[in-house]
Amino acid sequence: MGRKWNNIKEKKASKDANTSRIYAKFGREIYVAAKQGEPDPESNQALRVVLERAKTYSVPKTIIDRAIEKAKGGSEESFDELRYEGFGPNGSMIIVDALTNNVNRTASDVRAAFGKNGGNMGVSGSVAYMFDKTAVIGLEGKTADEVLEILMEADVDVRDILEEEGAVIVYAEPDQFHAVQEAFKNVGITEFTVAELTMLAQNDVTLSEEDQAQFEKLIDALEDLEDVGQVYHNVEFSE
């Protein structure tokens, strides 16, 4: 099933500590999702997914409410959803998803981040075919066997269930994201360590110490960009 999710989360932790950056990006994602459909998560699946993910990052309710109210208020601000693909050191692969109100600025910024940090841009489709869109839901306080029983009782099929460093991580098809969560909520589980639709690499690569240091600089540079929401890659970080 590829990289352990906890490994991914752990490496992101230092970046996520910059709460103002994280909150601003979530505010934009929530606004766009609410603007594209009804500003109600019960009837807007895209908004519901973003809100579930925001909850795992402890995004304050004030940030969420402000973004939804902005969408309700008929704001004319619009954003384009963009995806960039590229390569880092020694065959590493990267996908960058962005929301922007200035396509030229974002393209230039992403290209510069790759170029200045040992990477290079690829054409559309050059990397994405090596990743699978996946629903990832994690929780604590249960064993993998207990989680499997809950999901079987709810007649929910998943790809895999793994115990990873004290948590149980469920990997499922994207269209099963809400079904998995509802199965847990029906037995009183409402807190999740992770609840995301993500892109997981089919095969991971490990890098030398020098290449990994360069790669982490590249990922940091991409994640620091204002318009970039998510960065996915196929590198298994070593300690």
Question: Would you spell out the secondary-structure blueprint of this structure?
Answer:
Layout: H1 5-16, H2 19-36, H3 45-56, H4 61-72, E1 80-87, E2 93-100, H5 103-116, E3 120-121, E4 131-140, H6 144-153, E5 160-164, E6 167-172, H7 177-185, E7 194-201, H8 209-223, E8 228-233
Antiparallel strand pairs: 1-2, 1-3, 2-8, 4-6, 4-7, 5-6
Helix pairs in contact: 2-3, 2-4
Domain TACO1/YebC-like second and third: 80-235
GO cellular component, one term: cytosol
Pfam families: TACO1_YebC_N, Transcrip_reg
Keyphrases for this structure?
Arc Repressor Mutant, subunit A; four-stranded antiparallel sheet; Alpha-Beta Plaits; alpha+beta; 22% strand; Transcrip_reg_TACO1_YeeN; 239 residues
What does the model show?
Helices cover 43% and strands 22% of the residues. The protein is globular, with a radius of gyration of 18 Å. The longest helix is centred in the N-terminal third of the chain and has 18 residues, at 19-36. With 239 residues, it is α+β, with helices and mostly antiparallel strands. 34% of the residues are buried. Helix 2 (19-36) packs antiparallel against helix 3 (45-56). It folds into 3 domains: 5-72, Orthogonal Bundle (Arc Repressor Mutant, subunit A), CATH 1.10.10; 80-129 and 203-233, YebC, transcriptional regulation domain (Alpha-Beta Plaits); 131-201, 2-Layer Sandwich (Alpha-Beta Plaits), CATH 3.30.70. Residues 80-235 form the TACO1/YebC-like second and third domain. It is found in: Cytoplasm. Residues 3-74 form the TACO1/YebC-like N-terminal domain.
